Amino acid sequence: MFEVESLPQESAPKSECASDSARSARLYRPLTDIIESDDGVELRIEMPGVSSEDVELELARRVLTIKGHVQSTKPEGFTRGYWEYGEGDYERAFTLSEDLDGSRIDAQICDGVLSVVLPRAERAKAHRMAVKAA
Question: Please, what sign has the CA dihedral across residues 99, 102, 107, 113?
């Protein structure tokens, strides 16, 4: 159907005393479920902490690249002693087959899960033909 591009799972872990700028270098490979039906394919991609404004989808030469950015959140009036979840970027790429219609991609994010619907091209859908009696 399509290929999943290989990206690193996560950049090297940073020490707990690393500065905010060093933490921003993290690159996460989001977990993805791929669901296929007669009508197309849906990608469900985990991107906790990413808002709709921080998601980017790009389709070039049948490669769909999905990126998301997590903004660092520092609670007001508190000092962090230690944290593992921080600012960084998600990135994943998929090579689409010719039977998917890249011009009709639909995406939405809810509760940290990005849903990307890739409809099947009309020419690729199964069609039934009636047989007439002679």
Answer: positive
Element holding 22 (H helix, E strand) = helix 20-23
Distance between terminal CA atoms of the chain? 39
CA–CA dist 3, 41 (Å, integer): 13
Indicate whether 117 pLDDT > 60: yes
* pLDDT tens sequence across 32-60: 999 999 899 999 999 998 999 999 999 99
CATH of the domain at 68: 2.60.40.790
Name every residue whose Cβ is closer than 8 Å to that of residue 25 and which is 6 or more positions away in sequence.
Answer: 11, 14, 88
Q: In this structure, is residue 129 part of a structural domain?
A: no
Considering the domain boundaries, does residue 134 fall inside one? no
Distance CA 101, CA 98 (A): 8
What pLDDT, on a 0 to 100 scale, did the predictor assign at position 76? 83
The answer to the question of residue 110 being in a domain is yes
Indicate whether 43 belongs to any domain.
yes
In the chain, the number of structural domains is 1
| pTM, full prediction | 0.72
Which residues in 48-125 belong to E strands, given as ranges? 55-60, 63-70, 88-95, 106-110, 113-119
